[in-house]
């Protein structure tokens, strides 16, 4: 019934058929089951002795005991009766809905689970964001409880739709004619910053990300404080999938820290988790990582795999271990997260 092994204790069994039930499973297996928070109809227990089925809720196989909704013609595992209907998953910025046969007929092509990168069957349920065409297998989405939380009320749903970016990072003092403003007042600095062109043969590094400045930038002429245009526009709060707490991270200037994600010593701005007793700091590059990225060492897009076990990183040659990687499946090209930053030369 539950497909789990009980190491010791009593069970119900038929020695002729090698048919066994845990005592707890039999006592909890009611003929009918109703959970309107997950499905609007009642499920009825169905015994399929020596027969297997595919669960319409999660897409995986089952044996012997199932529950059916005769109104919707659904057959599900017992544990799938109470799947959360709406979740907020750490990998996506919108709430995700569980629907049976979730993908409409007009959706062309195949859809790939963003966690395991295997195809999601259009004939079974999954967690899906129809606005973004973002999809997860049920078992992938729910495999770790800290990767998601249930949305159980209208207020929770409306809160999950709001992306909190905090106050604007700067105030415009003087508009510019081109893509940059002429003068701004940035929250991180006491003086105004002025749009400035790069001077040839003068190396200047950004006080936010510590990377060489090669295009027009913002400069404080009194302090030589410099920011890339993109760094000046970084949101003061940022929702990121790379940290277990789902509160937005807060942008903190003038830091000297060890990035929790790439394990590199950094100076400049950091995104900090303000959750009680956490205080995780990550650099602005890691905070900006997406599930799909590029690397100068490979011509194809790389997809994030949370669990994959290649022998070594193709960039640095070091064993990857059990940490997540970026991978091109077609070329079997695998790199550490921090190695995606490495220049080609």
Distance between the termini: 57 Å
Average pLDDT, rounded to a whole number, is: 84
The Cα radius of gyration reads 26 Å
Strand line-up across the major sheet? 10-9-8-7-11
Number of helices: 5
Strand portion, in percent?
Answer: 25-35%
Q: Sum up the overall morphology in one term.
A: elongated
Number of strands: 24
Q: Tell me about the biggest sheet?
A: 5 strands, antiparallel
Low-confidence stretches: none
Structural class of the secondary structure composition?
A: mainly beta
Topology of this structure?
Layout: E1 11-14, E2 19-22, H1 23-28, E3 32-33, E4 43-54, E5 61-69, E6 74-76, E7 86-89, E8 95-99, E9 126-129, E10 134-136, H2 138-141, E11 148-150, H3 154-161, E12 170-174, E13 183-186, E14 193-196, E15 217-219, E16 226-228, H4 229-232, E17 237-238, E18 249-258, E19 265-272, E20 281-283, H5 284-287, E21 292-295, E22 298-305, E23 325-328, E24 333-336
Antiparallel strand pairs: 1-2, 3-4, 4-5, 5-6, 7-8, 7-11, 8-9, 9-10, 12-13, 13-14, 14-15, 15-16, 17-18, 18-19, 19-20, 21-22, 22-23, 23-24
